[in-house]
Design goal:
Radius of gyration of chain A: 21 Å
Helix content of chain B: 25-40%
InterPro entries (chain B): AAA+_ATPase, ABC_transporter-like_ATP-bd, FeS-cluster_ATPase_SufC, P-loop_NTPase
Distance between the termini of chain A: 32 Å
CATH architecture of chain B: 3-Layer(aba) Sandwich
Pfam families (chain B): ABC_tran
Helix content of chain A: 10-25%
Family (chain B): Belongs to the ABC transporter superfamily. Ycf16 family.
Number of strands of chain A: 20
Bound molecules: adenosine-5'-triphosphate, magnesium ion
Radius of gyration of chain B: 18 Å
Strand content of chain B: 25-35%
Order of helices and strands of chain B: EEEHEEHEEHHEHEHEHEEHH
Strand content of chain A: 35-45%
GO molecular function (chain B): ATP binding; ATP hydrolysis activity
Strand order of the largest sheet of chain B: 6-9-10-3-11-12
Structural class of chain A: alpha/beta
Largest sheet of chain B: 6 strands, mixed
CATH topology of chain B: Rossmann fold
Distance between the termini of chain B: 33 Å
Shape of chain A: globular
Largest interface: A-B, 24 and 30 residues
Number of strands of chain B: 12
Oligomer: heterodimer
Number of helices of chain A: 12
Number of domains of chain A: 1
Protein name (chain B): Fe-S cluster assembly ATPase SufC
CATH superfamily of chain B: P-loop containing nucleotide triphosphate hydrolases
Structural class of chain B: alpha/beta
C-alpha cells in the first residue's frame, strides 16, 4: 500500500469518527427531516472517502491536503460576541437587497427582520424552518443532493444542521435581490457545513446573491451544499461571490433542477480564497428550459480554483450556455471541467460551453477539460477552450496610444472579464462586480483580513 | 524632427530593414511607397516601439532624443503617432474609455489637467463631425466589428484627438471609399502646420493628390532605393516598380 492510500484512509476516518462521536449532537435540535438522512449519507461518504487525485472527478484538485488539517467542527450555533450587522464591512458594497447573515454555516441569531417580502415568501434559517414548516421542506430537501455520488455532498448531508432557506410560492415576483452573506469568523481553525435550500414556485421570480467572506484569517474548511428548485415558467438568478482569505478552503456544491420553460442564470465570481472547488449541476427536467451558467476567477499567489460543471439535458428543446473565464497570476492553479450530458430523448437540445483562460506568468497553470456525452441525435452542442497570454497586438495598440503598460494590461484583463460580467442581469450588481474585478486586478481589493500566509 | 541613420532591423531572425536613412524636418510630408513586403509597415512599427523587432544597427532620433530607448507609450506621448495598416479589434474595451485614457495620458505628460467629462464629449463630438464618423462607433468596443473603412477613419479620428507632432499613416487610404478618402485627407491636412510632420505610406498616387508630399521615397527590399519630389509618385503610378528594379540590377 502506498503512502497516499494510507493517508487517505486516515483522513476519511477522521470525518467518519467525527460523525460517530457527535451523532447525538448532530440530531439535537434538528428536524427529523435532516436527521433521517444522516446515516445513509455517512455510509456514502465512507465508501469513497475524501477524494484524492485518483478520483476522476477530482483529478485536478487534491482535497486530502486541506481535509487533513485539524479543525474544530461547529455542530451547534455559537453565540457571536459582536454585532455582525456592525462588524461586517466588506468590499462588496451594499446593494439595495434583502440581507441575511450566516456565521460559520449557521443562520445568524441577530439577523434583522426581513420586511417587505411578498406574502407567502418564507426566508430564514433552514434549521428553524425545517422544524416549524416541515411541509415546505420535506418534498425538496436532499431530492437533488441525495442522488449525487460525490462523497463531499454526502458528508454535507451527514453533518447538515443549518443554512439558508427560501421558499417562494407560485406566481410571486421578488424584485429586490436577496443577499446571503456567509461569514467565517473564529479564533481557531473551523470546519463548517452549510446547507441551503431554495424553492421557487411556478411562474415566480427571484434573485439570490451569495457572498462568501472571512472575518478572520484562520484556517477554514467549508463544505456547502445548495439545492435550488426552479418551478415551471420561473425566472431565477443565483450569483455567488467568493472573497475569502487565502487560508479558507471551500467546497461548494450547487444543484439546480429546472422545470418546463424555466429560466436560470447562475454565476460564480472567485476573487480571493485558498482552495476552492465549485461543483455545479443543472438538471433540465422540463422542456424549453434555459440555463446560463457563468464563472470567472482571478487568482494569484498559490490559490487553487476548480470549477466542475455538469449540465444534464434530460428533456427536449432546452438551451444551456456555459461561459467560464479565468485570469491566473503568479503560482495559482485553475481547473475547469465542463460536462454536458444530453439524454436519449432530449432532442433539439442546444448546449454550448466555452472556457477561456489567461495565464499571466509561466508558473500559473490551467487544466481545462470538456466532457460531452450525447445520447440524442438531433442536438446542437459546442465547446471551446483556450489557454493563452495577454494579446500582444492589442497591448501594443493601447501603448501606441500613450497608455502605459500596466494600465493597458488592466484594460485588457477587465475587457476579458467583462464578457462574463455583462451577462449579469441585476444591473447594480453588474456595476459593482465590474468595480470589484477592476480592484481585484489592480491588487487593491483587500482581503477581509490581510494576514494571509499563502 | 526625425532622423534615421543606417537602421537595420530583424524580425524572427530575418533581416527586414537593411539600412534605412531618412531625415524629416518639421512641417514636411514624406511619402513612402514600395512593393508589398518591402518593409514599410516594419519601419512604422519599429518607430512606434513594437517590441518583437530586433534593432541590429543604426540610430533614430526624434525631437533630439534617442527614440529607440523609449517605450512605445513614451513615444506616443512625445508626439509620435502610428495609424495602423491593420487596426486590431479589442473586444470589451469601450472606445470611450480607451480614448479618454489615451487623451488624458497625453495631457498628463504635458502637465495639463485631465479633461472633464463634458469637455471630453465636446471634443469627441467635434472631431467625429469633422471626419463624418458614425457617432455610434464610439459606443462600441475598440474597432470591434468596424468595417475596413471605419477602422481607418477611427485611426485618423484618434490622430485628430491626440494632435501628434509626427504622424505615420500606414496605408490609411486602403479600404476607404472615394468620399471618405477626401474627408480623411482633409482631417490630416487640418493638422498641418510648420511644426508637424507626416509620413504617408501608400501604394497609390490618389491619396497624394490630397496630402501633397514634399518627398517621395521608394522602399525596396529593406532599403530606400529612390527619393525624389512628388512627381515620382505619378511616375510610379504610370510605370510600376519594374524600371526601378531594373535600375538597381
Ligand atoms: N512578425 C513577423 N514575422 C515574420 N515575418 C515578418 C513579420 N513581420 C513582417 N515580416 C516580413 O517582413 C517583410 C516586410 O513586411 P512589411 O509588413 O513591413 O511589408 P510592407 O512593405 O508593409 O508590405 P505591404 O505593402 O504588403 O503592406 C515581409 O516579408 C513580411 O512577411
Ligand atoms: Mg504594410
Amino acid at each position: 500500500m502506498t503512502q497516499t492510500v494510507v493517508n487517505k484512509i486516515a483522513v476519511s476516518e477522521k470525518y467518519t469518527s467525527l460523525f460517530q462521536v457527535n451523532r447525538e449532537l448532530l440530531d439535537e435540535g434538528s428536524s427529523p427531516l435532516l436527521n433521517r438522512m444522516r446515516d445513509v449519507a455517512i455510509k456514502r461518504f465512507e465508501k469513497v472517502g475524501v477524494p484524492g487525485f485518483k478520483n476522476e472527478d477530482y483529478k485536478y484538485t487534491n482535497l486530502e491536503r486541506v481535509f487533513d488539517k485539524e479543525y474544530r467542527p461547529v455542530f451547534q450555533y455559537e453565540k457571536v460576541d459582536v454585532d455582525l450587522n456592525e462588524v461586517f464591512r466588506c468590499d462588496v458594497p451594499q446593494l439595495n437587497t434583502f440581507t441575511v447573515l450566516l456565521i460559520n454555516g449557521w443562520f445568524y441569531a441577530r439577523n434583522q427582520q426581513l420586511s417587505g417580502l411578498p406574502d407567502g415568501v418564507v426566508a430564514g434559517s433552514l434549521a428553524q424552518l425545517a422544524n416549524e414548516r416541515p411541509e415546505l421542506v420535506q418534498d425538496y430537501l436532499n431530492r437533488q443532493a441525495g442522488l449525487s455520488d460525490d462523497p463531499l455532498v454526502a458528508l454535507n448531508t451527514a453533518f447538515a444542521k443549518d443554512g439558508f432557506f427560501l421558499y417562494v410560492p407560485d406566481h410571486v415576483v421578488i424584485e429586490k435581490p436577496i443577499q446571503v452573506i456567509n461569514l467565517m469568523r473564529s479564533e481557531d481553525a473551523v470546519f463548517a457545513t452549510q446547507r441551503n435550500l431554495i424553492i421557487i414556485g411556478k411562474n415566480s421570480q427571484a434573485k439570490v446573491i451569495f457572498c462568501d467572506h472571512t472575518l478572520s484569517a484562520c484556517d477554514f474548511l467549508v463544505n456547502n451544499v445548495t439545492e435550488v428548485f426552479v418551478g415551471r415558467d420561473a425566472v431565477v438568478d443565483v450569483y455567488t461571490i467568493q472573497s475569502q482569505s487565502n487560508n479558507a478552503n471551500t467546497v461548494n456544491s450547487s444543484f439546480f433542477k429546472q422545470a418546463e420553460n424555466s429560466n436560470l442564470l447562475t454565476g460564480t465570481a472567485t476573487l480571493h480564497g485558498g482552495l476552492i472547488r465549485n461543483n455545479l449541476k443543472v438538471s433540465m427536467d422540463g422542456e424549453h428550459a434555459e440555463a446560463k451558467v457563468l464563472g470567472m476567477s482571478f487568482t494569484d499567489k498559490r490559490q487553487h480554483v476548480d470549477n466542475f460543471t455538469n449540465i444534464e439535458h434530460n428533456k427536449a428543446h432546452c438551451l444551456s450556455n456555459q461561459l467560464y473565464k479565468n485570469v491566473l497570476d503568479e503560482d495559482s492553479v485553475g481547473a475547469f471541467t465542463g460536462r454536458i450530458h444530453v439524454a436519449r430523448d432530449a432532442q433539439k437540445t442546444n448546449a454550448f460551453q466555452r472556457n477561456n483562460n489567461v495565464l499571466l506568468t509561466d508558473s500559473a497553470k490551467m487544466n481545462t477539460k470538456p466532457q460531452l456525452i450525447i445520447d440524442a441525435d438531433d442536438v446542437k452542442c459546442s465547446h471551446g477552450a483556450t489557454v493563452g497570454q495577454i494579446d500582444e497586438e492589442a497591448l501594443f495598440y493601447l501603448r501606441a496610444r500613450g497608455i502605459n503598460e500596466p494600465d493597458a494590461r488592466l484594460m485588457l484583463m477587465n475587457a476579458f472579464a467583462h464578457e462574463v460580467i455583462q451577462e449579469i442581469r441585476v444591473e447594480p450588481l453588474r456595476d459593482r462586480i465590474d468595480e470589484l474585478v477592476d480592484k481585484r486586478l489592480r491588487g487593491e481589493l483587500a482581503r477581509c483580513h490581510s494576514c494571509d500566509r499563502s | 524632427m526625425l532622423t534615421i541613420k543606417n537602421l537595420k532591423v530583424a524580425v524572427e531572425g530575418m533581416e527586414i530593414l537593411k539600412g534605412i536613412n531618412l531625415d524629416i524636418k518639421p512641417g514636411e510630408v514624406h511619402a513612402i511607397m514600395g512593393p508589398n513586403g518591402s518593409g514599410k509597415s516594419t519601419l512604422g512599427n519599429v518607430l512606434a516601439g513594437k517590441e518583437n523587432y530586433e534593432v541590429l544597427e543604426g540610430e533614430v532620433s526624434f525631437l533630439g532624443e534617442d527614440l529607440l530607448e523609449l517605450a512605445a507609450e513614451e513615444r506616443a506621448k512625445k508626439g509620435l503617432f502610428l495609424s495602423f495598416q491593420y487596426p486590431v479589434e479589442i473586444p470589451g474595451v469601450p472606445m470611450v474609455n480607451f480614448l479618454k485614457t489615451s487623451l488624458n495620458e497625453h495631457r498628463k505628460y504635458k502637465g495639463l489637467e485631465p479633461l472633464t467629462a463634458g469637455e471630453f464629449l465636446k471634443l469627441m463630438r467635434e472631431k467625429k463631425e469633422m471626419l463624418h464618423l458614425d457617432s455610434q462607433l464610439t459606443n462600441r468596443s475598440v474597432n470591434e466589428g468596424f468595417s475596413g473603412g471605419e477602422k481607418k477613419k477611427n485611426e485618423i479620428f484618434q490622430m485628430a484627438l491626440l494632435e501628434p507632432k509626427l504622424a505615420i499613416l500606414d496605408e490609411t487610404d486602403s479600404g476607404l471609399d472615394i468620399d471618405a478618402l477626401k474627408i480623411v485627407a482633409e482631417g490630416v491636412n487640418a493638422l498641418k502646420s510648420p511644426e508637424r510632420s507626416t509620413i504617408v505610406i501608400t501604394h497609390y498616387q490618389r491619396l497624394l493628390d490630397y496630402i501633397v508630399p514634399d518627398f517621395v521615397h521608394v522602399l525596396y527590399k529593406g532599403r530606400i532605393v529612390k527619393s525624389a519630389g512628388k512627381e515620382l509618385a505619378l511616375e510610379l503610378e504610370e510605370k510600376g516598380y519594374d524600371w526601378i528594379k531594373k535600375e538597381l540590377a
